Amino acid sequence: MKRILGILLGISYAAVAQNYYPLHNIPKPANTYTLKESLRTSAGVYTEDGTLLRTLWSNLEKKSGTHRVVWDRLDDEGKPVNDTTTTIKILANKVNYEWKGIIGNTSNTHGGDSIFNNAQVIQGMIQVGEQLYYNCGYNEHDPAFGKFKINNINKKIPVLSRIHYGLEVPYICADEKRIFIGGLDIWNDQKPTMVFAINIADNAQYDFSHGSQYTLASNHKYRSVIGRVQGEESRITGMAVQNNGNYLFIARGKLNSISVYDKNTGRLVNTFTDFINPRELKIIGNQLWCINNKMIEQYTILNNGFLDNRNIFNNTIKEPLAMALNKTGKNIAIADGETNQIKIFNSAGSLIKTLGISGGYRTNPNVLDHKFMLINPAQPEMKTFLCYQDDGKLWVGDTGNYRSLRFNTDYTLDDFIMYQCWIRSMGVDRSNPTRVFANYLEFSVDIEKGNWKLVKNWAGNFKIEQDGEYDRLKWVSTLSNGKTYAFQLATNATQWEVVELADTGLRYTGIKIKRRTPTATLLPNGNIRYFDGELVVKPNQPPLYWKERSLTGFDQNDNPVWGDLEEVANTGILQPSDPIYRETISWNYPPRNDTESNLIISFEGGSAAPDYSSNKYHLGATKKGETGFKWKTAVGTARNYYGPYPEDGRYDMGNGVQYPGGVILVEGKNIFWNYHGEFWKQMQTNIFTHVYDNGLMVGKFGVTGADIFKGKRVWDQTGVPGMAGNNLKGDIISLNGDLYVLHGDEGWHGGIHIWKISNLNSIREFNIPVAKN
After folding, report:
1. What is the pTM (predicted TM-score) of this model?
2. In b/e form, how buried is each residue of 143-166, taking b as 16+ CB within 10 angstroms?
3. Quick one: which of 127, 551, 599, 707 has the most CB atoms within 10 Å?
4. What CA–CA distance (Å, rounded) separates 90 from 69?
């Protein structure tokens, strides 16, 4: 390519440089390059050893034709560059970024307000006509309740507006006219609980003559609530309403009470305090059923709202978790927490059917239709449920598998609803990328077709004292002995324990690895990489080191054996502007692997607090075996910046953000850093920036809460394609020339996101030599 001599100001090009400084009276090399088609471009100036001196521009669309490059001979720090032979690199590409949908969610569509995307699993159902209403405990962004049609179960129908978020809904019940919703104002320090009702006909709030107004901590106002009680002990543990009678019953287990209200006026009729942890109320005709002190009991409801004729129905099940009665009251299904089975009795108390495998997942992790985990040991606050449809079909809350299963009257599986709740731990076995993990669930995935199946649940025998929601099954890897291992928190949270994903479940090896300071990461090849992460970096601080222990083999118990710690690279003398990994946020870790050019990638993405974040660069690369950074990029905006999300690869430290960065992924020559933007403009973002291994930007993809989708702001909608809340964990798959980025979510899609990055072979580098003078 011909070099053109001369002095060209070219201010339009220089002004969009990542680190622009005013032009000085220094000779300005002007050079050209030619594009045969319109492409995205970025450019930088490099020394002979490949160190990036200056980023000239990032992510600019250039039309076909010949273009000039102007450099004012300043580096990224604004210092003159004179006595160095340099090369200008132009990176051009037409890489495609496409959101492909989600894994682990059975909803009919992958987006929109009909997708199941709650923070917790479905925990209760009631049939009203040809629809089933459900509640799901806690949720954010949208209400913690909804409905769906019996003949179209995987299409959610929203009930009420999203401004009902912040109300935890543990129970609902219904008569022919109204849905009664039991709620906990979870963000109110006093933890008040109450009940409100909506009309089935029009979803309008019902006004009780004895009700009172109430405003949630999230600022939503209810015109009329009843049964309001303050305090953590006031949590509602059961609700039931008479269809033909006048009474609504509310159980509060920690208060050992069941209160009776006039369902039409909201007037308190009576409160019974002679129960022991009552819960799971059901009504058939004039009979009230409840679980009382772990016994199934039956009472006759008198016309004045009092209870009589106590009858102990069953005392053989030691841990009854939930129950349901069919329409006629002839069949009673009980969830047995001791055996993880559903036991069905006739009205005389005789056992007529048992659903499920005794022990559930305690003996092996293999998922089956008739194998239940009624309580998720990692999230015990999510309860199971049982519900009979009017046609006799039975719903089972398979809580630990995030499934709601519907069984036919012959107890064969009919259909199910499944979605994931707040994925704060996820990953891929890089040696076998069909294995995708979310929390303790394992999916078998055909990533190209988007097909998936739940195959294993590893929570059956995990140690609750070693659980951490951000650190479940970290860096799953099938190693050279053909066995699969991961890191799990040790009892001492400053350590990892190595676990094997064995046929019988998790096998804790007893091998402990230091987790923090230095931070340890399990690489796909089985080596352990350490980095001396810091919280605060001061001027001229001594170097920090990357070190590694190589996998050397396995002992007689098939436990991995690692060699001595060896230095891999170091940062050189550090400045507060350097992009080093900082141990500020528990969910952030260095990437699992290096680039194919042996660059160790460093991402500083934890906090926006000045003391705990870089004051300039947020992404950098160090050559293995060397000292210092080959390049630094992702320059932070001013902290008082308020405006659109940057398109040129800058790292937004403004817009009110508190926790900016997310996951960092590396594959081949490609680097992807995420910006999840907690509280960005009082919203969130899900943006990935794609950087090449020379430090230049390839492109960006994703969504911010401020974007406009179908004429509306993203933040005001549900299930917008590509949007995710708190994208904290992810992984990457390389397959047939394409890359697939997978990541978690909170509250937007209820599953693992898939992005396809294709046309990577369009990436081209133009090199233009520049003489010393």
Report:
1. 0.94
2. bbbbbbeeeebbebeebbebebbb
3. 599
4. 9
